Amino acid sequence: MLAHLREDITCILERDPAARSRFEVLTCYPGLHALIIHRLAHACWRRGWRWLGRFLSHLGRWLTGIEIHPGATFGRRVFIDHGMGIVIGEMAEVGDDCTIYQGVTLGGTSLIKGAKRHPTLEAGVIVGANACVLGGFTVGAGARIGSGAVVTKPVPAGATAVGNPARIIAAEEDAKRETAAARMGFSAYGVTQGDDPVAQAMKGLIDSASGQEHQIALLWQAIEKLSHQARELPAEACVPQDAHTTEQFDAERLNRLVR
User: Fold this and answer.
1) Which domains does the chain have, with CATH numbers?
2) Which pLDDT band, with edges at 50, 70 and 90, does 89 fall under?
3) Using CA atoms, how far apart are residues 189 and 234, in angstroms rounded to an integer?
4) Which regions of the chain does DSSP assign to beta strands (E)?
5) DSSP string of 164-189, one letter each residue
6) Could you tell me which of 139, 12, 51, 98 has the C-alpha nearest to residue 86?
7) pLDDT tens per residue, range 190-243
8) Rounded to two decimals, what is the model's pTM?
9) Higher local confidence (pLDDT), 158 or 172
């Protein structure tokens, strides 16, 4: 019990820049208090003392604003940040090193008793504020659930789920978009990952512009080569002055268009 408590305090100090000391974390963090009470409630639940487990859970909800069913299972170093309004169902499983923000629901859609109704979060999952993860599926290790997302199907390891209903964004696609955006002179991190139509348009511009610029450069290079062979003139004389034979991008012009 004390070993778990030390780990929980350490992980909060590592993940929350607002945390200043162990004493502050121990006395002022409701997420930590909710986990301590839940461990007691879960121990009662496993021993068959169901009413006592539910009563401790109810007490923890009243004290912290975080409702965790005593049947739910938690790994080590779980960080519940702020925590107000969190609801975690009976068959939910939260793996090691997960982070859960305020307003999150780990709930179910089935009314069948005994069935796996609530989700499983594997190690290192981050669930953003006010997200709902509903169903008896698995969210893979290292996945991220965006704020306000409603997830009703499995999320692969390392992927991101955003929107309502949630869409799965593969980690490889995000990395490619960030690489293209950095080469153009601005970062796609400035664009929200939600359903904002302007954000979606910006993503499309980034993906489209990076591909078209490459194709245009290849075309001009081919034209330059063919013109030189046909006329036996200097290559520079056969290509218009404004031709782009190398890839480049005017990021400032794009910024002016979207202001």
Assistant:
1) 2-169 (2.160.10.10), 174-258 (no CATH)
2) very high
3) 44
4) 67-68, 73-74, 79-80, 87-88, 93-94, 99-100, 105-107, 120-121, 126-127, 132-134, 138-139, 144-145, 150-151, 160-162, 167-169
5) TTTEEE-HHHHHHHHHHHHHHTS-GG
6) 98
7) 444 455 555 666 666 766 776 777 788 788 788 877 776 666 655 555 555 555
8) 0.66
9) 158
